Amino acid sequence: MFLTITTTGSPERPATDLGFLLHKHPEKSQAFSTSYGTAHVLYPEADAERCTAALLLEVDAVALVRRGKGKGRGGAPDAALAQYVNDRPYAASSLLAVALSSVFSSAMRGVCNARPERAAQPLPLRIEVPALPARGGPELVRRLFEPLGWAVTVEPVPLDPQFPEWGDSRYVRLVLESDALTLAEALRHLYVLLPVLDDAKHYWVAPDEVDKLLRVGEGWLPEHPEQKLITSRYLSRRWSLTREAMERLELVRLAEADDSEVEEIDNAVEAESETEEKPTPLAVQRRDAIIAALKASGAARVLDLGCGQGQLVQALLKDPAFTEIVGVDVSMRALTIAGRRLKLDRMGERQASRVTLFQSSLAYTDKRLGGYDAAVLCEVIEHLDLPRLPALEYAVFGAARPRTVLVTTPNVEYNVRWESLPAGHVRHGDHRFEWTREEFRTWARAVAERHGYGVEFVPVGPDDPEVGPPTQMAVFTAVVNVNDEKEAKAA
Amino acid sequence: MSENTRATNGRVLPVTDLSLVVLVGASGSGKSTFARRHFKPTEVISSDFCRGLVSDDENDQSATRDAFDVLHYIAGKRLAAGRRTVVDATSVQQDSRRQLIELARKYDVLPIAIVLDVPEEVCAERNAARTDRADMPRRVIQRHIRELRRSVRHLEREGFRKVHVLRGVEDVDNATVVTEKRFNDLTHLTGPFDIVGDIHGCAAELESLLAKLGYVDGVHPDGRTAVFVGDLVDRGPDSPGVLRRVMSMVKSGNALCVPGNHENKYGRYLKGRKVQHTHGLAETIEQMETESEEFRAQVREFIDGLVSHYVLDGGKLVVCHAGLPEKYHGRTSGRVRSHALYGDTTGETDEFGLPVRYPWAEDYRGRAAVVYGHTPVPDATWLNNTICLDTGAVFGGKLTALRWPERELVDVPAEKVWYEPAKPLRTEAPGGHDGRPLDLADVHGRRVVETRHQGRVAIREENAAAALEVMSRFAVDPRLLPYLPPTMAPTATSHEEGYLEHPAEAFAQYARDGVERVVCEEKHMGSRAVVLVCRDAEAARKRFGVDGPTGSLYTRTGRPFLDDESVTETILDRVRTAIGEAGLWDELETDWLLLDAELMPWSLKASGLLRSQYAAVGAASGAAFPGALAALEGASARGVDVADLLARQRERASDAAAFTEAYRRYCWPTDGLDGVRLAPFQILAVQGRSLAGLPHDEQLTLLDRLVEHDSTGLLQTTRRLYVDTGDPESVRAGVDWWLEMTGRGGEGMVVKPIGAVVRSAEGRLVQPGIKCRGREYLRIIYGPEYTRPDNLDRLRKRFLNHKRSLAIREYALGLEALDRLAEGEPLWRVHEAVFGVLALESEPVDPRL
C-alpha cells in the first residue's frame, strides 16, 4: 500500500520537476478516491537535489470484504478477498498498481505539458517498495526487473522475528535504481509487474485486459526474457474467473471450520494438470495398459472408480467395444472437470447413453456399482489412508464384485529413477503411501484370496531390471461370479 | 332401507387391513358407489379418474393403456407404503386382473376380489342416466357381464386369497365390509417378552433356560410372554418334550411361536408328504413313534397353525425364524413366508456343501429390531438392529434367550454335544473386524435425520456431497468417529463502546430464555479435539470393532488430529492412565470414554493457516508502516498538512502491532508432546450412557479429578465461574472475570446453562453455549483495524439468526449421535447423525461468527 519514487537533480534540472512529471504538486498532500480506498500522494522531501513522491493507498478492508456480498464465502467473489484478515491493506499488491494507474495516468502515458522534453528523457530514479508480495521470491524479482535496466536490491521480510523457525514471508523489500529509464517506463513496469509478482486472484479482469497489457507493455514486454511468465501470470486472473464459477464453497467452509486452508482438502484435482493438454508419457502408457487389459478380459460395461478428470473415460469412449462406461469420483470438482472435458452437454444422444458420471465413495458400499464387467482403480488406492483400505477392498471386491478389477499404483522402488524427485518423497502431495512391488503383491494376493479372485501382475512403463516399472498393475479376475448367480436366482 | 337393517341383514365381507382389493363388475354395476360407501376416498383409485389424469377425458378409451400405467403406479406406491388400496375398474378380463395380482405379489400383500354381479338392465339404466356414458353401446355391458360370469369361478385359482361375490342389487346394497387384521400383526402386544433361540429337541436345556428366566411350569409370575423363534425339533434328544412344553405354553397364552424350517418339514411329513429324513428329522420321527396318535395330531395342527412371523410391541419388534428384511415386515405372501423360514441364499454352496446364506442383516436399515435364529453362531450379537439367537445348543453350544425390551441376553450351556455339526460354528455377524463399510445410501443426497431433541433435521444435497468428500478422503475410521462437535453461536452483538462482543449480552439472552444458572468456561486457545479413549485394545475391539488403535483423536471435521499414530496413542495412553488413577472406569461403569476437549497450542494444528494468513499480515504491515510513517513525518516537517493522515496511519500501525501480538499468543513451540496440552471440558458418553445431559458443574467436577490424576502435564483444567443471570451482582462479577481474562490476552469464554440440555418455557431447545470472544482475539477474526469506530459501526450489522439455527441443528444431531451410540444402535445410525453435523458445517454462514 506504499511506495516511493525518488529522483535527484541539479539547479538546471531540479529534482522537483518530478512534481510536473507526476502532475502532483510537491507542496501539497492530495487525496484521490479509488475503488478500493483512498490514495494519497505526498512528498516527504522536495528540493532541487532530491525529490521523493510517496503513494499511500489506504485500503478500506471492511468495504473490500463487503464488495462481493452475497457471492459465497462471507460474500466476496474471490478467495483472497474473502479472507477477512488479509494483507491487502499493507502489501504493495495489484490494488496499489490499480491506484498507481489511476492517480498517475498521464505520467504513465508520458504526457507532460509543462515539461514535455523531460517526460521523454531518462532520469535518475530510485523506487522503493517496502512490502512487496513476491511469489517466486527475490530471485524472480531480479529476473523480472534486471532485464529492464534496473539495479535491483531485494531483501526478504521474515514472517515473524519472534519465530525465526518460520522463515521468510512472501514479502520482500524492493529498491529499484536506474538512470536509463523515463518515468513513464518505470510506472508501466510497476503497473504490470506488481500484480505479476503478487499473483493473487483478486482482480476483476475486464475483457479488454489483453489490449491493456499490450499497450502498457509496449516497448519492453515483447523483448523481456520472462515474457511468457509475465503474460501468463498477468492474464491468469482471467482463468481464475472461470475457476471461480466452480469453486466448491461447501468445501471451503469445511476447511475453514477446521482452521485449514482449502487447498489442503480440495486437492483431488491438481491445479497444474487441469490445464495441461499434453499428458505425461507414463499416464499414456498406463491408459494403454488398462485398455489392453480390459479388452483382454472381454469387458463391455466398465467402471472407472476414481475417474478424476475423465481422461480414461474419454479414451474408453473412443472404443465401441465398451458399451457402458461409468466414471465415479468422490470429488465434485473432478466430476465437473470431467464433464467439461467430455463435453457431455453437447454429446450426441447415442454416445451420451454410453457414459455416466456420478459421485460415489469407495469408503462406502454403493449398490449402483453392482453388476459391471470390470472396474478400474487407476492411481486411486494410494490416496487413501492405509487404515481405510479394508473399506475400499470390501466396497469393490466384496460388494460391487465386477468380474475383472484393475488396480494401478506407483512402485516406490522406482522413485530413485525420478531425477526431479527428492529422496524419500512421494510423487504426489496427497499420496498417503507408496508401495514396493512386494508390498503391493502381498496386499493384492490377500485381497484375491479373501474375495474369490485370481490375480496377475503387469508392469506399466519401462521395467527396470533393478527397481521394476514406475507403475504396477494388478489384474484381478473373479473365480466365482456371485452376481451372475444372484441374478440367475432372482430371475 | 335404513343403515341399521342393511347392516344386520346384509353379507359381512372381511377385508384384510393391508391388501389390494379388486372390484370386479360391469360398467354401471355400482363399483364406485360401493367403494365410496365402504372405503376411505384416498384408498380408492378408479381407472376413470386415471383416464382423466392423462387425457382430460374420463371416458377416452384410447387413453386406457396410459391410464392403467398410472393406476398401477399409484397402487404400487400405496402398497409399498403399507396402505390398503381398492382398484375401481371393471376388471372383468383375466388379463387385467392378472396384472393386479402381480402387483399385490410384488408388494407382498393379499389380493382380494369383490365381485358385483348386477343384472344387465340395471347397469344399462344407470349408464343411460349419466350424460357422459349415455351413448355407451348396450353390447359393451353385455360383454362385461359375459366375461364376469365366465371368470367368477376361477378367481381363487387366479390367486385371489379372498373372493366375495355379491349377486344382485340388494346383495350389493346390503353388504358390510369389516377390516381384519393380518395374523402376523400383534403390534398391540407389548410383552415384556423372552425370546428363545433354536432348541432342536434340547428339552433339558429348555427347562433350565425357562427356569433361569423365571418361568414356573411355563408361567412367568410377572406375566412375561415367551416367544420361540422355531426349530423346536430335530437332531436333539427329546423333540416331543420340547413340543409338549411349547405347545402348552402357547395354548395357555404364555407363549408365542413362529415356525422354523424343521417344523415345517416335519409338518409336511405328518401330512403324509414325501420328505428326506435328513438333518435330524429321523430322530424326531423315531422319538414321536412312542407318542400317542392324539399327540401327533395335536402337533400336526399346531404346526399347521403357525404364522411365519410376528410384528410385536407397537412395531418395534419382529420375530421370525430366519430373519426378515424390512419391506417384508407385516406382509403376507409366499415369498415372505419363505424368507422367514429359510432366509436368503446367494446360490453358492460352501466347502461343506451347505448353501451360502445371503447376509441380509448387513443391508438391514429398519427401525424394528429383528430377532431370529436359524444360523448357528458362537455368540448372539447385535448387527444393524438384528440379532440371531441360534447359539447351537444341540451342537454343544448354548441355548440363548433375549429379554425384550430390556435387550438382555440370558443363556444356559448345552449339557453335551447332542449332534455333531456339519461345519464348525463361526460367527457370521459381519461389520466387526474386517472393516466392512457403511452404505452410501445411508448418507448420500438430500436427507432428513430424525432427532429426538429437535425433530427432523434436513440436509441438503450439496452439503452431503461436500461432507462425503471430506469424510471419505480425510476422516478417521467411522467406527472411531461416533461424534462431531456442533458449531457455536456468538453472543448477540454488543453496543458497548469499543466492543463487538460482550458477556452482558450472553447473560441477558439466557435470562430471557429462563435460564437462571450458567457457567462461564474459559475458552482455551487451541483447537477443538474429540477424544475417544478405550481402556485397552481389547475394549476397542469389542465395542468399536477395530484392531489396533485404542481410540481416536480427531478435529471438528473428523480428521485425525495428528499425522503420527504413535503420538496419538501416547496421548490416549496418558488420558487412559489419568482415567484409571481417578477411578472413573469403575465409577462410570465403562471401558471407554468420549471426551470433548481443546488441544493446545493452536499452532500445533493451524500452523499453515497461521503462517500463510496471520503471520503474513503481520509481516506485511511490519514492513510497510515504518516507511509510510517516515514519509508522512518528512512531509509534515516540510510544512505539508498531513496531520490527520499521519495520526490515522499511526493508529493503523498500532492496530497492526496489536494484531501481531494477538496471534502470537496462540503459538508456542512444542517438541514431541512437550508443550502440548489437552483441556477436556465435557464427557460426552460412556458405555450405555450419553452424558450430554449431565449438568456442567458435575461434569467439571469429574474432569477436575481427571486432570488432578494426570502426572504428565498433558491435561489442563478449564477455569470457570458460576453466574446467576438474575442477580446483577453476579452478572457484574461474570463481566469482570471476562474483562480480566481477555485483558491478559485470553480468547474469551463460553457461557453455558448449568443444566446442559435445556429447553425454554415454550419448549424450544436453548443454545447449549454462547461464546464471548475477547476484544483483542477478535482482531484475528475481523481484521487488525476492526476496533476503529467506523469499522465497528459497520461490523455491528451482523446477522446471527442463521448461525444460531445452525448451532441448534448441529447440536441436536450431535446429541442424537450420542444417544444412538449409548443405546448400542447400529453403526450406520450413529454415522448418519455424525455425517449430518459435517454436512451442516458446509452451509453458508458468515465464518466470522
TrEMBL record, chain A:
Keyword Cell inner membrane set for record: no
Domain of life the protein comes from: Bacteria
Gene3D superfamilies: Hen1, N-terminal domain, Vaccinia Virus protein VP39
Signal peptide: none
UniProt enzyme class: transferase
Molecular function as annotated in GO: metal ion binding; RNA binding; small RNA 2'-O-methyltransferase activity
InterPro entries listed in its UniProt record: 3'-RNA_MeTfrase_Hen1_bac, Hen1, Hen1_N, Hen1_N_sf, Methyltransf_12, SAM-dependent_MTases_sf
Sequence ranges assigned to domain Hen1 N-terminal in this UniProt record: 1-249
Protein name, entry field: Small RNA 2'-O-methyltransferase
TrEMBL record, chain B:
CDD domains given in the database record: MPP_Prp_like
Organism domain of life: Bacteria
Domain Polynucleotide kinase-phosphatase ligase, residue spans: 466-844
SUPFAM superfamilies: DNA ligase/mRNA capping enzyme, catalytic domain, Metallo-dependent phosphatases, P-loop containing nucleoside triphosphate hydrolases
Keyword Kinase: yes
Entry-linked InterPro entries: Calcineurin-like_PHP (IPR004843), Metallo-depent_PP-like (IPR029052), MPP_PrpE-like (IPR041780), P-loop_NTPase (IPR027417), PNKP_bac (IPR024028), PNKP_ligase_dom (IPR032380)
Matches recorded under PANTHER family: PTHR12435
Domain Calcineurin-like phosphoesterase: 192-378
Entry keyword set: Kinase, Transferase
Protein name as catalogued: Polynucleotide kinase-phosphatase
This protein's record includes keyword Heme: no
Gene3D superfamilies named among the record's database cross-references: 3.60.21.10, DNA ligase/mRNA capping enzyme, P-loop containing nucleotide triphosphate hydrolases
A family per Pfam: AAA_33
A GO term, aspect molecular function: kinase activity
